[in-house]
Amino acid sequence: MPSAPSSAPLESYHTQHSPFGAFASFTLGLVDSPGGFGHALRGPAQQNLYIGFRPSTKSDWNLLPYFTPPKSNEVAFVGELAVPQAPKNYRSLRPGDYDRQLGWASDTWRAGDDRFTFSLLTPFSRVPDPAKLTAADARLHLAPLVSGFIEYDNRQGKTPAELIFGLGEPDRGLHPLSDDASPLAGFACGTEYAYATKPGRGIELRQGFDVFSPKFRDYRGLLVIGGETALVFTVPAGQKKRFPLVLAFYNAGQITTGLPASYAYTRHFSGLPDVLAHGLKNHARYAKIARDRDAELTRSRLNVDQQFLLAQSTHSYFGNTQLLWHRGKPLWVVNEGEYRMMNTFDLTVDHVFFELEWLPWAVRDTLDLFVRRYGYTDRIRTADRLAPGGLAFTHDMGVMNHFTPPGRSSYECDDVEGCFSHMTMEQLLNWILTAVTYAEKTGDRPWLVRKKKILLACAESLRRRDHPDPKKRDGILKHDSSRTGTHGWEITTYDSLDVSLGQARNNLYLAVKTLGAWVLLENAFARLGLKKESTSARATSDLLARSITQKFDPATGFFPAVFEKGNQSRIIPLIEGLVYPLYLGYRDAIDPAGRFAPLFDQFRQHLAQVFKRGICLDETSGGWKMSSTSRNTWFSKIAISQHVIRQLFPETLSPEALAADRVHADWQRRPGCGAFAMCDQILSDTGVVCGSRYYPRGVTAWLWLLEK
Amino acid sequence: MPSAPSSAPLESYHTQHSPFGAFASFTLGLVDSPGGFGHALRGPAQQNLYIGFRPSTKSDWNLLPYFTPPKSNEVAFVGELAVPQAPKNYRSLRPGDYDRQLGWASDTWRAGDDRFTFSLLTPFSRVPDPAKLTAADARLHLAPLVSGFIEYDNRQGKTPAELIFGLGEPDRGLHPLSDDASPLAGFACGTEYAYATKPGRGIELRQGFDVFSPKFRDYRGLLVIGGETALVFTVPAGQKKRFPLVLAFYNAGQITTGLPASYAYTRHFSGLPDVLAHGLKNHARYAKIARDRDAELTRSRLNVDQQFLLAQSTHSYFGNTQLLWHRGKPLWVVNEGEYRMMNTFDLTVDHVFFELEWLPWAVRDTLDLFVRRYGYTDRIRTADRLAPGGLAFTHDMGVMNHFTPPGRSSYECDDVEGCFSHMTMEQLLNWILTAVTYAEKTGDRPWLVRKKKILLACAESLRRRDHPDPKKRDGILKHDSSRTGTHGWEITTYDSLDVSLGQARNNLYLAVKTLGAWVLLENAFARLGLKKESTSARATSDLLARSITQKFDPATGFFPAVFEKGNQSRIIPLIEGLVYPLYLGYRDAIDPAGRFAPLFDQFRQHLAQVFKRGICLDETSGGWKMSSTSRNTWFSKIAISQHVIRQLFPETLSPEALAADRVHADWQRRPGCGAFAMCDQILSDTGVVCGSRYYPRGVTAWLWLLEK
What we know:
Glycosyltransferase, Glyco_hydro_52 (chains A, B), xylan 1,4-beta-xylosidase activity (chains A, B), Beta-xylosidase (chains A, B), 6-hairpin_glycosidase_sf (chains A, B), 6hp_glycosidase-like_sf (chains A, B)
């Protein structure tokens, strides 16, 4: 995939390189910044990385700029007896000195007239249900490792060249793998992470205060108290050599509290030496998978900016995945980036498209856990009483490896108007939409049958939230859950974006999402042979569509974002709820001339007006703004809206709206977001992240690959 | 124990509060600095601690100054929707506002006209051999916890007062203990650490972005995504209440590499809830032990500065202790402060006096492990050849929870002149001195018998290092081990202090230490019935004493520190080697008028001259300098020399030398050292640490309690 064009300013961004389900990342890429191995962190680790080459042993090292200037820790030992010198014989390559290409499952750097190549591979493939994996497949899919290689083409060289891959971690210290009875060449940090290559001629281990010019060497050439470690590879004159690398993670024992669970991979790997040996043995196999993924993206219709956005998003998604094992069964978690909330339902519903392609069982398992542990029944607050409510689900299942008690999230508080309130209606919709999308896409009919009662309860719960009196219902949520306390109000997933998107009652975005839910229920009930319920759902969606139609303001040609208090915010994601029928191919619901034609016509009018600078295109940057009244905009949600609009309302996209992929990609590949790998909440004028760092949700861009 | 007198400047120092053998500390005490729970760290943790009181719920909180101003992390969640306020309704007490008293096993703060009391208790007692502990005793001695209480005397109050004990850790997050099925009131961070009190009326849990004025509360009054946690206690008007606290650590699974081992306490405790419950159940028992230890120190003859130094040292010693379990047996490690080298022999030999009182089996086990795994046989480098050497031992057993391979340390390098070279002779002496001191003090005759061959090999090794030709021997080390490579030289434990103390060959300090070793060997061989060997050892020590005598320079009245190259450094620890016969009460060896009278007379002349400003009292501070030519001085070694000199050469101590306890204590209780709890390597002019932070070795001051 081509890198940013030469007209772009500084490209400098971290990327998470992560195994599947290990909640671990090897992060690097931000210029002049450290990174490295991290378990369950909210952002990049802080290890110096020494990755580079020198054409001869007399030249200075050329290093990719992924470190802060190393200091020798010698002084802590020698006091005033010497003035330790910081390492000197290296230079930090500037972005103009190297080329970086981020693929879907790779990240590759070239420098020194392309003689030097360094690549990290994060192959991913369709993962079978972990509950049914064979032992061999489990090792293949669950290996907690990142693959890679380092290469030098010295065919024209007159002297031996050298390559280096190293890491500085003075706080923890590493040790040579040979001390773990491993035959491999490399280093481990405790039992938690390690890097290695195959041993052989021309491969040297270094450890000490300075890996470039080691001053102190013990019987095997190392100084184990030194916090700097490296592998140094010699490439003889006249040869081209590529050396495999494996980066391994391991975290044994109890990982989570609340529900005590351990990593699934610990059932299949005994520890770091086992993981490393497996990685080197299967190096070619993993490289092939990575190449296949890369090629799929490159061959797609996506433009280079879109390709970059999906690649960067996929990397961060896997960095947040966590496959645990609890009482003999898999326990799936996607962590929420810097917040590290667990299985946040707002994310589950957005990840569904990607996950149904690559790991559909994860969607099912998460839905089941929401039913089993994180469902609840509330009442609804009317003007004069608490009326019967219904089934709903929590916002999340916990935070930072802690599962909250049954029926309770880590996030939702009482008596709050705004952020940290409950998202009862939103999560009810999320269960319906995710469940039906899963069942319809995978054809898992038995599962749908088992969930019949839940779906019926969800439909009833939806209705009651509209109005206790069936005669007064119009399909739109108008009441708050009793969980919000005496004066709080329900919020939506867009809690922190803008009041126009935050309030759940009389909310445009939520109303159309409700429409999507009823359309899916209609189909699910039909599939289950529940004709009456299906008909009733269809009637409700027709009613709701008409109700929304009436909120349109012909004078302005816009929908207000909230049907209250004269709100005049203009929002893009009013059509977000259409993505589910679109994804499932429910033609009658997505036909612009079909049953919702009047509503679609209004959507078209609305959208045709928003893609202007100062409305929903940022005045300064031209990037998409989810709301005209907020400069906080969310990439993952832009991606969904782009997909829906390109598929259903392509004529509303102004040339500037179409050109914004470049803007969105630049946000991510410059330090404003790039310091935290994939970021979701971004200030649309500056392109600087304002929340949701190190975030998994960008994989909504996967939808783009489905476009014709 | 009284605190520093009012004339002293700012008292501000961290203290490690540590369980026995858990390599863990709850550190606090440096003004305006965080601290808290740390496992295996090289310095204080970085958690904000909220410990204080307010006389009414309308007053601001008065907090001990052990935090940086808390910031609300709300902004990461709400973006620009709100401007989150940092907590405001508190004030940070200034050192003049509170009184702190560090006891041997306690650390107590009083404020608010003594109405407020906070105390941490680290009871320690004689620990029986872990290999033979009953299950009940194991739980008592190995519980990985720190005890404490918080109290308010509101008998004169008109309104309810409140107490707070809390902790901020946004990087990791904590969760309420009730989620771990614990009946206690408190919080845990994963499975790794926790704090708790007994639940009851007037005890409230707080968690969120601001524990002083929580803005968001869930169904149980918390916000689990918030990184700030606290227990808030209400003390009704007219009452005085004391609430128990327990701080617990837990680290499951494999802890070390090289030799894979886990914590011994994991065999007796199932996890944090178990540790906490045990701590609260046995709170009174632990408090009694702490009071007993405190009283022993207070009742001693030590002056207040000496008491402080021993108390602070003992706290850091326990913070570095680590009782592991390996293949069904205990595995004892003392870690080396910031360097975290394991069982560094230079420290073992200095800890021996303290450990023989409190945990004598630890000395034995460490000696055994040095024989079993960390002994080696070298050759010695003469001018023209490699001559037979002998048995010796490594400098350490590994670093940062990694055991190095058999026969190898983490520190010693080849071909080095100075720091990081081998310490062959030093460690050989250390084994002899530690072994005989252990066996003689404990009367463990069977062990001594089992080690007969080792002792004989040690004696032979000592002789060969003097000279390959027995006829040319004078008792002084004159050759370097083949391990030092082709041109390196052996160093002593004083490697980083001064060249005058660093070089092993012809070294005054090492020569007298060798004398001590021969005296101990003489006695050990006699005890073993090896008359010939005993006689021979006695002859060697007589020869050596005469040889040292000849190095004295009558012109100056000094010994040179190194018998080479016209060295003119004056050192205090020339008499360090006498501590062993002194400790064991070998009267003939320590009688100033006895067999070594000429030598002792020269020692006396030397010492009588060094305790002057500009020689071995620092020109600026008046503190003891180990060498006249280095401003790097080591507290743990000062303590040994003070003991030996007060017992054997008291007349040499100038009034200024005697007054220096205050100087040495001030070094430790001011931020120059206090930022890292007990420090060993200190710049004698400024009192600022220059190495060996967070260090265990200050327990050499234990020797002071033996003085009559």
